[in-house]
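quick one, 76 residues, struct below
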Amino acid sequence: MRAIKDRLKNDFNVSVAEVGNQDVWQSLHIGISAVSPDKPYMDGLMAKVVDAIDRMNLAEIVDYKIEILSMSSDNY
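---
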């Protein structure tokens, strides 16, 4: 977990936290967050983060979900 977390934080300036299955050996659920007013930028950033995790070959990605929230009703 630490290697994945440190690389993502350094390479993409995102926040990373273990969010589930913390007591299950060889299982890792992480949450990754970032803030930007630019939705297309966020789409690209999150795609790059998922790709980077896959290329690290430190863990197998079984499933993932990207959710982008807008805090203003006039955006997107």
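The longest helix spans residues 39-56.
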